[in-house]
Fold each of these.
Amino acid sequence: MKQVITLCSFLIALAMASAASATEVVSKSYWGEKAIGSHDTVAYHDPQVRETHQQVKGKKTFIVKHLDANWYFASQASADKFSANPEKYRPLYNGHCANALSLGEGLIPTNGKIWEFFGDELHLFYAEAGRQRWLKGDWKSYRKVADLAWEKLKNG
């Protein structure tokens, strides 16, 4: 009987931990907990970066721990901006592929190399084909489906 109670307690704790982590899971590497491929998420918002459509790699000297992930930044100024308002700079869906969510494929991690702003929000993609689908299609409809999928995954 004691073993059954212990097993039940363990399973309940595991379920609670899984539910808690699902609410704010971040797209990160398997090694080093690097969010979005260690790209500087604040830099995407810079007008020059947006115009040239490049990515800016973060440095090991400027890391902020947020939502159990290490977010890398190219400068202390970027790290400070993120620390002050992570919701403003964090990519939509915490960096998971927007296209995959819109297709019902679940949480597909990204590395921060393929990105686009739709509206005023940063969206990351696993593959260029997904980004192109959103650019050429009805991104607002895709976004609605992705938002619903994200909420469902967050809330279990």
Amino acid sequence: MSNQPPTSMEERRRQRSESHASSTYKSFLKDLEAKGLSPEEYAERAATSVLCCLEQRIMGAEAQQLESQLPSRLQELLVRCERHEGLPPSKFGRAEMLRVVSQELNVDVGTAESATRAVLATVSEHISQGELKQVVQQLPKDLKTLFPEMTLH
């Protein structure tokens, strides 16, 4: 028998919730690593950079809906993203997005494009198809091409 005091039902729920959040986030990062984004710290930075850019491009309500379907640990990183805090959506295309991601990750544009594609493919796997369709519909054609082909139909 354990020497630890019994925990309240509320405490056990909180622990389960934290465990689930951690496992969902780890699953997201593992999916990124499987797509070539490693180590884990780089995968996390890439996800934050790409999603912050994407949120800058889409309408505020849609950005909130997208965030709500992402792992909570990733949501926390995006909330702290100061780049788009309180700003209206910005009109930019593929070249500008890749330039920003390239600068933030300190990589060349080709590597930034690979990272962006990996993040968007992983997001596509982790959110509902309805939400994905709503996000993609708000983007210009050149940005849509960064998503996996299957999401464009």
Amino acid sequence: MQTIPTGYTYDDVMLIPKRSRVVSRVHIDTSTRLTKSLKLNIPIISANMDTVTEAKMCIALARLGGMGIIHRFLPIQDQVEEVLKVKRSESVLIDRPFTLSPEQTLQEVRVLKEKFNTGGFAVIDQDNKLVGILTTRDTLFEDDEQKKVKDLMTKSLITAPVGTSLERAREILQQHKIEKLPIVDETGILRGMVTAQDIIKKKEYPFAAKDRKGRLVVGAAIGVKDDYLERAKALIDAEADVIVIDIAHGHSENVMRTIRELRQQFSDKDIQIMAGNVATGEATEDLIQAGADVVKVGVGPGAACTTRIVTGAGVPQFTAVMNAAEVAEKYDIPIVADGGIKMSGDLVKALAVGASTVMMGSMLAGTDESPGKIIFRNGRRFKIYRGSASFGAASGREQRTTGSDAIRDDIDQIVPEGVESTVPYKG
């Protein structure tokens, strides 16, 4: 008779307290690896769910040392824009600042300000040469919506050459009492921008997780069908730090094929690939051998996921992480424990059993930074939270990813593996 192994959830296990040499919590180092080449300062990642993570969540987490994963249930360009919002939110040097043409109107400027959530633009001519700067102060009391940028912008500019250090940039900003310092080459072409706000944020968030260019880190998810390669290329071009191949059953030929395709098509890029979701050591090994830099573990443990109930498949999360981590350690590949985190102690258990980072959804869904909608019930505020495989998410996916108004013709064939619910609003 076949032996059925015992599996444990986080609730089934307690860590035995031992003697500690730590005299103060301020001395604890919470930094970790997401991949071999990408370090985070806290082991927390937000889930790539449409009611949890877009740019706002990514920015907030990265400033604290973690990272967010932009969900894939958006048109490609919209997902790219979310990545760029994170990359442009703060930087030692903004290498792709928002720009305007001198011929654009104030009406267009206000639309772009709202879209990109920025108050300042560099104004460049057709040769990409800097001709002015337009900030909120230039337009604050202007009522003529058809007025041209060239008639509103500040033309007398203080600039700095390529290669200017951050300390020197700070001195120039302070000396001239300005907020934005364009970086130009010897021909006057705009090469970047340093802002006073970015220098302030560097001091305000000393543990922020940043890339090699000093920008906040961000990941983005793709699938394994339809536009997945086109989406991946656009996200790689936008310099997403991690591409996340994410489906409910990650131990499949589709996922391994996608990993190999990405490695082949983008061999000239230093891309980091996270793949999942899996629940066994065997699956972890297969994804690592296919080329994954980090493996995401968790089939059905999430608060909004019903995969285990609907399919009868899955492994209790504590055991799944333990088995996956044991295999991954042989390859020196990190593990992400995805789902099942209801309390802070569950996060500690996941790390103790071998995970390098933990992905959370429901615990972050009630915050201001999540894209979920606020609703009122009995005088209390809640936010909508749903699984990526819930009926509502699945039935409207084509409309959200393509921008089409068409209703899925196979809607009667959807088998939900998630639920839609609410979580208390946390602020």
Amino acid sequence: MTTFPQNDTRRRDVLASALAVGCAALFPGPAGALTTNEAAQLVDRVVGDINRVINSGRSESQMLVEFERIFARYADVPIIARSALGPAARSASPAQLRAFTDAFQGYISRKYGRRFREFIGGNLEVREARPYKRFYEVKTTAYLPGQSPFEVIFLVSDRSGRDLFFNIFIEGVNMLATERTEIGAMLDRRRGNIEALTQDLRRAG
């Protein structure tokens, strides 16, 4: 098992504690029926699909199509999209939210698909899973040629009626927090216009 510096562990615990507060708002109500093993099995399938794609020898455009399928299959895209949109999600119409979520799925798939393409020649391995607050944390290790192993964490919940991941930490970088900041900045540039933001997302990532 790969070990990580104690300071990194403390930092992740602080991040997880802060994130738990936000997740409580995303996933209100009592805990679901998801188990630690089921959370680990979900991420094992995600990791298996990612490994298959990054080592397939396909072109970038072909890989990005596959990564969007992975996100659509295993990620709680509506929850991630609402979190990224922030307070504006509460005032958006259902049609605006649907269009934003659709555009966001393509955007996030392209963005993180390109990040995972950097793993070509390597692989991800599930290391451990544990319950945390109202969700599960599944830790994986990325092994890349010529680099020290590093941690990729998936947060998993079944609050949407299916076992899905709703956040990723890559080397400590929190996807939900990062996207909320970046989408918020994009929305500010559009003076709060969600339709314009949605069009921007279709070209971004």
